[in-house]
Design goal:
293 residues; mainly alpha; 13 helices
Length: 293
């Protein structure tokens, strides 16, 4: 492989400088400021602060509201990731077997991906609205008095359904690409060795999709934790304060609506450490089971 040649030894650093500057301004500096602010009781109006040590961390971890939010976030992330990956894989396998009208079928499954999260949240609110929502009428057939914004778990289920629906097309695209990249000779050899379609999928096809699945698992967890903010904001806006929210939304609500900047910063640092641990677990434990060749 030919190495790139530069006239000056400083040229590589000069080319990297804009990107490093963006990372420093928009990622490193806010993270450092959040860590500093987490040790202070901040005055949101005059910009002054009183050093309180670890009190903000103790208050956050000992609050029942924070533990309840953390439990809901875990359930939300687990179900959204699991459901969107499973349904996306199932649709991709179905689309891979379609012979006629394949392009139309794929387009119908992928168009949801173009919807912005707040718009998806608005559609979800309309579908589950107590006055005009068709899904509320459907739940009433089974005697379920569905009350979004009033009942804690009804609101949580709405969030899970809308977030899953929004993410399915993204998983579908990658799974379908992964399925179509499997060599035809491998599929033919597998069909000769094993007549059961179901067994052939789990012993041959699914292991070959392991790199794609691992990649999507990471992205789906990040999506459920961070990118559902706009959708959640639209669903719980102007609703009673006992609606379920994720940890990211609680950081925003306590910091910008409650003016508790120090406590909000402590929560964001705890969330940052949680994501760091989760990332290490994913790459140290799960990636070992993924075979790229």
């Amino acid at each position: 492989m030919n190495k790139a040649q530069f006239g000056s030894p400083w040229m590589p650093y000069l080319l990297l400088a804009p990107q490093m500057l963006i990372i420093a301004i928009f990622f490193l500096w806010p993270a450092a400021e959040a860590v500093r602010s987490s040790f202070y009781l901040e005055d949101p109006f005059f910009g002054t602060g009183t050093f309180v040590g670890l009190d903000n961390y103790r208050d956050a971890l000992s609050a029942s509201d924070y533990r309840r939010t953390a439990i809901f976030t875990g359930i939300f992330v687990l179900l959204v990731s699991l459901l969107s990956l499973s349904i996306g894989l199932m649709l991709a396998v179905s689309a891979d077997r379609v012979l006629r009208g394949k392009s139309t079928y794929k387009t119908l499954l992928m168009w949801v991906y173009a919807i912005a999260p707040p718009v998806a949240g608005l559609i979800g609110v309309m579908l589950f609205d107590q006055h005009i929502g068709p899904l509320v009428d459907f739940a009433a057939i089974f005697g379920w008095d569905y009350r979004i914004g009033v009942n804690y778990w009804d609101t949580g289920i709405t969030m899970i359904i809308v977030a899953t629906w929004k993410q399915i097309p993204y998983n579908f695209i990658f799974f379908l690409s992964g399925l179509q990249s499997i060599p035809k000779s491998v599929k033919e050899a597998a069909s000769i060795d094993c007549s059961s379609q179901n067994r052939r999928f789990w012993t041959i096809t699914f292991p070959l999709l392991a790199p794609t699945t691992f990649f999507l698992l990471i992205l789906n967890i990040a999506y459920a934790m961070f990118e559902t903010f706009g959708m959640i904001d639209l669903i719980v806006k102007d609703q009673p304060g006992n609606s379920p929210v994720t940890l990211v939304y609680k950081v925003y609500r306590d910091g910008f609506r409650g003016n508790d900047l120090g406590g909000s910063s402590a929560q964001s640092v705890i969330l940052m450490l949680l994501v760091l641990v989760l990332t290490i677990v994913q790459f140290r434990l799960i990636e070992k089971r993924v075979h790229y060749n």
